[in-house]
Design brief:
The complex is a heterodimer. Chain A is mainly α. Helix content of chain A is 64%, strand content 6%. Chain B has a 5-stranded antiparallel β-sheet with strand order 6-5-4-1-7, with no helix packed on it. In chain B, strands 2-3 form a two-stranded antiparallel ribbon. The longest helix of chain B is centred in the last third of the chain and has 10 residues.
Chain lengths: 309, 141
């Protein structure tokens, strides 16, 4: 069997990958070439059949964020979560975290995406700022400042349901640049051609790190587009209704937030459309705010388990 | 025609009714296969291939691809050229996380592990709703 050098092979695969990707643009092509170069250092010769298989992989790499398996999404989510905890540390009070997981996981079970690889998990963060983050796969974080904006369980349910909406619609994964997705899937394809060596692992880890940065940059600094925020709000209204909470909890929470956020601050105000705009967008779906009643037992447990944070 | 699908999450359930509160009939793991008898709603009517158990599973737990656990080199090669397979443990995985953690030792993965320990069972969910007088639509608790 004809042997090709590793570099020849990778160049061939890169070209073919690029050929299959013309429609996705030059940046993607550059990424393929780059990853090939990183992965190609001194890993020895490969056979022609392996070249063919990599060619096919190259053609197959024209994929999107949807190509990540739930398992890969889970690993992305764990690391995004660890980064989010860099911004605000965890608030480690078992009673409050247990309560928020009871509420949140029940809501997630009723969402359009109840099954993620490792399941949904919720964590309170020790900060007075008003903020929340949804990492891929279902790792959801809410600051004490945001919990304090919620006057009852229905309002807190609305906050969590909105974040579940982001996970359900894979908004975090959408923030990953196409070039990284191509790089990652091409490197993964190389596993087929040869045993996965240290160089490929290094290349994949680099792409992993860049993907994490894409997501955290969006979650913490830039925020999602108005369209995606609105999608999460509508998903939240559906979830709340299915479980038996008042979707009016969303309007209650947004009204509170409007009075508490400081214009120009670096938290929620920076990464989200204004609460008033979100209320306006929701009203055609769930109607204008009407004060809702809350069974006493529900309000009492809210006060006992979490209102004190 | 009935189609075969695989579980692509760590764990999922076959339920008596097509609902998030449906009684659990069977627990399935990553890679287990089911025959889909009806996929008109998001809750698929399925039969578990290994045991014959029949019930409902949510579409988000399933993939049309065949999941290969512990894939060897041959399986990997085959998969690299086809969309019919999904490999467990490949790509962004434990090794990649391990290497990333070694490069970023300050990151707080211990808290992520602790967060994962907060699992809530189906019975706890039901009790939580009942105790708070939360009434899911059309679902007697």
């Amino acid at each position: 069997m004809k042997e090709t050098t590793r570099r020849d092979f990778l160049t061939a695969a890169g070209t073919c990958a690029a050929a299959g990707l013309l429609f996705t643009g030059c940046k993607t092509m550059e990424a393929v070439t780059q990853i090939m170069e990183v992965a190609s250092v001194d890993t020895g010769p490969v056979t022609s059949s392996q070249v063919q298989s990599a060619v096919k992989v190259g053609q197959a790499v024209a994929k999107t964020f949807e190509s990540f398996t739930p398992e890969q999404e889970y690993y992305i989510g764990r690391t995004v979560g660890a980064m989010v905890l860099e911004k605000y540390p965890p608030f480690n009070q078992t009673i409050a975290n247990t309560y928020i997981n009871m509420l949140g996981q029940t809501l997630a079970a009723a969402s359009d995406r109840p099954d993620t690889f490792g399941g949904y998990r919720f964590q309170i963060q020790d900060s007075d700022e008003i903020n929340a983050f949804a990492a891929p796969g279902g790792f959801i974080f809410v600051t004490r400042g945001l919990v304090r904006c919620c006057k009852d369980e229905d309002a807190l349910a609305a906050v969590l349901a909105h974040e579940i909406g982001h996970v359900q619609e894979k908004h975090g994964l959408r923030a990953i640049k196409q070039s990284r997705i191509t790089s990652a899937l091409t490197t993964i394809g190389l596993e087929g051609a040869k045993q996965f060596g240290g160089k490929e692992l290094a290349a994949l880890t680099q792409t992993f790190g860049e993907s994490i940065t894409d997501i955290t940059q969006t979650l913490i600094v830039n925020g999602y587009s108005r369209t995606l925020e609105s999608q999460a709000d509508l998903a939240a209204a559906d979830i709340l209704t299915r479980v038996g909470y008042s979707p009016q909890g969303l309007l209650e929470m947004l009204t509170q937030m409007q009075t508490r956020i400081k214009p120009g601050s670096l938290d929620f105000a920076r990464t989200h459309p204004s609460p008033l705009d979100r209320i306006k967008a929701l009203e055609p779906e769930i109607g204008k705010f009407i004060p809702y009643s809350q069974p006493r037992v529900r309000l009492e447990r809210f006060i006992k388990y979490i209102a004190w944070v | 025609m009935d189609k075969s699908m695989s579980v692509h999450v760590r764990q999922s359930h076959v339920r008596e009714k097509p609902s998030f509160l449906g009684r659990i009939l069977a627990r399935l793991s990553h890679g287990d296969r089911v025959l889909v008898l009806d996929d008109k709603t998001d809750w698929f009517d399925v039969r578990v291939e290994a045991t014959g158990a029949r019930g409902f599973m949510h579409t988000s737990a399933l993939t049309i691809k065949k999941v290969i656990l512990n894939p060897g080199e041959q399986a990997v090669e085959k998969t690299a050229t086809s969309d019919e397979f999904a490999l467990a443990g490949k790509g962004f995985n434990e090794s990649v996380e391990g290497r990333f953690r070694a490069e970023n030792p300050h990151l707080n993965f211990g808290s992520i592990d602790r967060m994962e320990a907060y699992g809530v069972s189906e019975d706890q969910m039901r009790q939580f709703l009942f105790a708070g007088k939360v009434m899911p639509k059309g679902e007697p608790l």
